[in-house]
Amino acid sequence: MTSELERTDVVIVGAGFTGLSAALEMKQAGVGFLLLEARDRVGGRVEARHNGLGERIDSGGQFLCQDMPEVMALAKARGKTFVETYVEGDFITHPSMPARDAKQTYHGAMAIRERMNGIEPDDPSIEGMSVAAWLERQHDPIDAKRAFRSMIEGLWCLAMDKVPLWHLIDNDRRITNEVPELQYSLRETMQSLAEDLAGDLGDLVRLGEAVMRVEHGPQGVRVVTGNSVIEARQVLVALPPATAVKLDFAPALPARLARALGVWESGAVIKVLVRYPRPFWREQGLSGMVMWRDLPGLFACDASKDAKHAALVVFIGGPLALRWRALDAAALRAEVTSRLQAALGPDAGDAIDFSSRDWIEDRWSGGAYSDLIVDATAKDAERTILAGAPSVHFAASELSPSFPGYVEGAIVAGRIAARKIVLQLQSPIATSASGS
């Protein structure tokens, strides 16, 4: 049963960092809005949960670095404590190889990535080519190519044969950090930052409000949830493309726009935090960073908040995540533990807590850090989505001009979309049409 009709200027769908950033921008501009979130929390792909020890841990997006100015500025302004990721000591590649060879392999993989990014996305010689097909043509050592594959499938969480080469180049060029993206995490969790932003919005954020239908036309929109009906002048859909396409639009979106939303696929990732009584790897002169050459998409690094809270975070991405999600909790723990022991020694079996979060097919945000275009012909998809339709706008980290797929990108995308909407609402034509 729906409540009485409400009215506002803008309805924002989705309270991840995109929606939160857009809402704060609109609040500053004096524009009326409501921010609707299907989950019982804000943050989207950023999330915190309690592990078996009662500690609040990042089970979603976590890391940031000094080359991400917007999220860094927000975290500093909110008084967050930066925990620098421990990187002293040796980086392990498994199966093991001599340190010199490991270094050479890493640099070889990075050289492949740089060569890839030197290609223009619209170069006719790569028309219709997948990342996998392009890699097959490269004449690099096999170990470097395997390391490159592990890097790509770990970061973008999709099989390389699904991803068009032009799209990965275009995407990767926007990720411009020169320091490691794992430089910092927040002691209070990244989720706490999302909660701080939501706190500034008060009751303009509504949790547990899943949008069922968006009715739209030149005169405005009507957004229907299970609890309410809201009329507005504009709607901003601040959801990843593969989630946004599942919304019920009435009438149906223009065919070109619907197709542009439909060419994206969510990757697959399982995130694991393994807590230990002490950071044993540091005692062995190791950084805790491990890349498995025989299991593309598997990666671990030190995620200790301090020496008393020793932890490794393990990312399982891409096709490997799809295989391992079939395991029950005990089998997944055994699989991950055995891999850590093989790489770091028997002490890796002495965990005091093992917490995993399977993001695959997450109902409200898809399965990984980001959606990717999987149709090689869809070169206009981003532009088409950003153009939207009358009264209907879209924003997502995936569509950001900087750091797509990251919290940084979400913040930038939300602010850009909000400024565009504010300008439209404040234009003489829009003001006249609304009778203001």
TrEMBL record:
<feature type="domain" description="Amine oxidase">
    <location>
        <begin position="17"/>
        <end position="76"/>
    </location>
</feature>
<feature type="binding site">
    <location>
        <position position="211"/>
    </location>
    <ligand>
        <name>FAD</name>
    </ligand>
</feature>
<comment type="similarity">
    <text>Belongs to the flavin monoamine oxidase family.</text>
</comment>
<feature type="binding site">
    <location>
        <position position="18"/>
    </location>
    <ligand>
        <name>FAD</name>
    </ligand>
</feature>
<keyword id="KW-0560">Oxidoreductase</keyword>
<dbReference type="InterPro" id="IPR001613">
    <property type="entry name" value="Flavin_amine_oxidase"/>
</dbReference>
<dbReference type="InterPro" id="IPR050703">
    <property type="entry name" value="Flavin_MAO"/>
</dbReference>
<feature type="binding site">
    <location>
        <position position="315"/>
    </location>
    <ligand>
        <name>substrate</name>
    </ligand>
</feature>
<feature type="domain" description="Amine oxidase">
    <location>
        <begin position="180"/>
        <end position="421"/>
    </location>
</feature>
<dbReference type="InterPro" id="IPR002937">
    <property type="entry name" value="Amino_oxidase"/>
</dbReference>
<dbReference type="GO" id="GO:0016491">
    <property type="term" value="F:oxidoreductase activity"/>
</dbReference>
<feature type="binding site">
    <location>
        <position position="398"/>
    </location>
    <ligand>
        <name>FAD</name>
    </ligand>
</feature>
<protein>
    <submittedName>
        <fullName>Flavin monoamine oxidase family protein</fullName>
    </submittedName>
</protein>
<dbReference type="InterPro" id="IPR036188">
    <property type="entry name" value="FAD/NAD-bd_sf"/>
</dbReference>
<feature type="binding site">
    <location>
        <begin position="37"/>
        <end position="38"/>
    </location>
    <ligand>
        <name>FAD</name>
    </ligand>
</feature>
<dbReference type="Pfam" id="PF01593">
    <property type="entry name" value="Amino_oxidase"/>
</dbReference>
